[in-house]
Amino acid sequence: MLLGFSALFFQLSSFSIIAIAAALIFYGIVIELVLIPGDAELMSLSPRRRSGRFFGIYESAHNFGYAMGPFIGGFLIWYTPPPVFWTLIILCAILAIWAFFFKSKKVESGEPLIRAARSVIKRDHYLVGSVREFSSLGFQGWMLWVFFFAFAFRWGAIALLLPLFALDLNLHPVWVGLIYSASTLPFIFFSAPAGYLSDKYGVKPFIAGGLGIAGVATFLFGAFDSAIILFVLSFIAAIGDSFLVPTVYASFDTLASRHFKGRVTSVVAVAEDTGYLFGPLLAGSIAQYFGFPAAFYTLGIIILSAAAVAVVIKLQ
User: Fold this and answer.
1) How far apart are CA 110 and CA 20, in angstroms?
2) Torsion over CA of 49, 253, 191 and 292, rounded to 10 degrees?
3) Residue 51 and which of 87, 92, 244, 289 are 20 to 30 A apart at CA?
4) What's the mean per-residue pLDDT of the chain?
5) Confidence (pLDDT) at 1
């Protein structure tokens, strides 16, 4: 329902810069209230020794939504008289009602909400308790955190750079959309097979290989200005991401089998959010002062360095 309020805020804000910024901040806060417990629930539901294929299917569905959302939203903006955000409000309300009445047989009541919120501050000292719980996963847990941060760092930077780079090259807006959409579509088709194969052959080839593929493709962005080549490179980089993400989630699931999953997923969310924050900041700064190719080369080197680390360390 809070996501619906975010959409309502957008609708009533008259689209001023300050109001949009406030709505985005509000949305960023409340989305974690959905994602963190949702990821924790997924970890508790995933079947033992088959978590790779489980999270692979999840990522396929997840990114199908990312692919269809902009398409449907654009169609609604073009076709229907009512503003698109009212449609989002109605959809969020339906989902909120569905979530309210949905009850798992294994759900326990736990603490009341207000007491739990106080415990987060007084007993767990906000994030300290979660970090301690996450640290008990050991060295591999923190390395997975670094790899997931690297994914978000690159993805956040690419989400900023690619459309701007395409516009800077005076490409047709259709090509701008295609190049950007290519960074999402492979998740739909490659996440499930990658998860299945990681269950069978181990996670290391898919973590190291995924980072390597994404790193090479990102590096090559700086060497070409052809719309077709940029589309292909965007698609290839996303294949690497689709190898990496479900495998990392499955690895966290395995490591956290005897831990408080909510605390673990909260620290994983920090890796993702900090990557989305610092990736665009660094890439945008480099592009501003040294040009787009330099930004892509820097990103590629960072991701390839992470891939090299994944090759040499021990991953279960």
Assistant:
1) 36
2) -150
3) 92
4) 77
5) 45
Asked if the model's pLDDT at residue 251 lies above 70, the reply is: yes
* Contact partners, residue 13, CB within 8 Å, separation at least 6: 19, 20, 22, 23
Say if CB 55 and CB 253 are below 8 A apart: yes
Token reading at 80 = 């229907």
Q: Does the CA dihedral 24-26-32-33 come out positive or negative?
A: negative
Mean pLDDT of 265-286: 86
> Vertex 289, ends 285 and 290: CA angle to 5°?
105
CB atoms inside a 10 Å sphere around CB 198:
25
Residue from 11, 27, 28 nearest 269 by CA = 28
DSSP string for residues in 37-97: HHHHHHHHHSPTT-HHHHHHHHHHHHHHHHHHHHHHHHHHHHH-SS-HHHHHHHHHHHHHH
**Tally of CA atoms within 13 A in the half-sphere of 162 that contains its CB:** 31
Domain spans, the chain: 2-70+77-311
Q: How far apart are CA 171 and CA 282, in angstroms?
A: 24
- CA 301 to chain CA centroid, Å, is 21
**At the fourth CATH level, which superfamily is domain 2-70+77-311?**
MFS general substrate transporter like domains (1.20.1250.20)
